[in-house]
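Example record for the data management plan.
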Amino acid sequence: MKYISLLRGINVGGNRKVEMKRLKSLFESMGFADVNTYLNSGNVFFSTGEKRNSLQKEINLKLKDEFGFEIQTLVKSQAEIINIVKAVPDTWQNDSDQKTDVAFLFDEIDSAETIDVLPVKKEFIDIRYVKGAIFWNIDRKLYNRSQMNKLASHRIYQLMTVRNINTARYLAEN
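Corresponding structural encoding:
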């Protein structure tokens, strides 16, 4: 089965550095096939016959051994990523006028109710839930008013990993 591993919080502001070549080699050493990385933010494509539930734990342990620090990893099947991206309206873009992101959710918060606890002003943002993710679209002129900048300091942010819509669409198509 084809999977995508989404590493959370690496290579941000020069911290928690993970080299993609080394990351790819690690996944290959774990016996996974068709391993490729995308961008420096920790997106790893791979194939295996293993079940998703056991993969996340196994990958987390190997990452800590290899890089010396914990890296939360969310593993989604290619089909799950495709379903999530299909739910995002085609007109939602990440460009100079609008900002569209997908927050892939860890199981603990994979629920429509998660939207209710986010520290955002929903009158300035179109935010929606689909199994496995929350996604949003904001007019860039209203970004500060939406208070999306408060999300990163919220406790629930630790249980999601965010990609812009361009990256999410690439993950679904490859």
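Summary line stored alongside the record: The longest strand covers residues 98-105.
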